[in-house]
Amino acid sequence: MTSASLMGEVLARVGGSGRGREFRVFECYARVVGEGFRTRTRPERLAGTTLIVRVTSAALAHEITLLRSEILGRMTAELGPGTVTEIRTRVGALV
Length: 95
Prior knowledge:
Elements: H1 3-38, E1 41-47, E2 50-55, H2 58-66, H3 68-79, E3 86-91
Parallel strand pairs: 2-3
Antiparallel strand pairs: 1-2
Helix pairs in contact: 1-3
């Protein structure tokens, strides 16, 4: 068992399955996008099966859009089908 899956289980127990699921999705996103995107993007929330990602520029939002199917494919391989089916970007400062 990985620390990420253990943390997801703990969060699911204390904060509901939504929080644990969101944590797992955020951790997976950080792994699959790599260092270059990880430093310039931040997952903000999971709305159903749509991952909302904050990006630092419109150009980066476009780049994420172009790579969306590759990112979703990698996430599906880790999380299973139907967990994240869409990625939406929002431009703004990373918090």
